[in-house]
Amino acid sequence: MSQDNIFMGASTKQGYDIASKSRKIVRSLISDKINDLSPEEQLIVERIVHSTADPEYAEITRISPDFVLESLKALKSQKDILTDITMVRAGITNYEGKIECYINHKEAIKLAKEEQITRAAAAIRIAHNKGFDGIIVVGNAPTALFEAINLVENEKMKVNSIIGVPVGFVGAAESKNALKNSGIPNIVTIGPKGGTPVAVAIINSLIMLNKD
User: Of the chain's two ends, which shows fewer C-beta atoms within 10 Å, N or C?
Assistant: First the structure.
């Protein structure tokens, strides 16, 4: 599989040509900022930059040394992927394993009301109660990321890695710093930037790398 296909998921000649041109542009903008990364990590950052049209992500993305290896182990075993919101789930493609999201689940809605927590945080707790084991992808809700970290550290929730890129000015930076400083294999974006496109770009890059 070509790196351009991994980069953008191109499947036709026109798509490949666009992917190839886009990849050259992205590399010209950020190549000096990602030289210290592994080839797999470079592809992930390149895809983030392409998906957001924002070269700053090459400077604010942080990847723990074990993130790619542990993530690919999970995908190879077709472990489940858990997302914080349905929009992130909808963006994940070409994965043969289960992709879960409990934010609209009746148990999560009930728990959120009872505990006076966000539905996003409750959804992570419900996933843990149901025996989740795999990769967590958080693109929007800092409360979901805080809950995941807490469950892994204190309740032994099973995760191979966490993609933690919530966006916003309330709690996002703090939740990502908490993840970065945890012992959990992770990728984060420093500061308030992040969101669904970033989260989807990361997990889809890993899925394509797993198929290579």
Answer: N
Q: Residue range 86-99: average pLDDT?
A: 96
Taking the domains of the chain in order of start, what are their residue ranges? Answer: 56-211
pLDDT, average across residues 58-62: 98
pLDDT surpassing 70 at residue 10: no
Question: Is-catalytic flag, 128?
Answer: no
State how far the Cα of 112 lies from the Cα of 65, in Å rounded to an integer. Answer: 35
User: pLDDT by residue (tens digit) across 160-200?
Assistant: 999 999 999 999 999 999 999 999 999 999 999 999 999 99
Nearest CA to 190 out of 44, 54, 71, 58 is that of 58
HEC sequence for the chain: CCHHHHHHCCCCHHHHHHHHHHHHHHHHHHHHHCCCCCHHHHHHHHHHHHHHCCCCHHHHEEECCCHHHHHHHHHHCCCEEEECCHHHHHHCCCCCCCEECCCCCHHHHHHHHHHCCCHHHHHHHHHHHCCCEEEEEECCCHHHHHHHHHHHHHCCCEEEEEEECCCCCCCHHHHHHHHHCCCCCEEEECCCCCCHHHHHHHHHHHHHHHHC
Provide the CATH topology of domain 56-211. Rossmann fold (3.40.50)
User: Which residue type occupies 195?
Assistant: G
From the CB of residue 155, how many other CB atoms can be counted at a distance below 10 Å?
10
Residue from 50, 89, 125, 128 carrying the catalytic annotation? 50
Residue 131 bridge partners (DSSP) = none
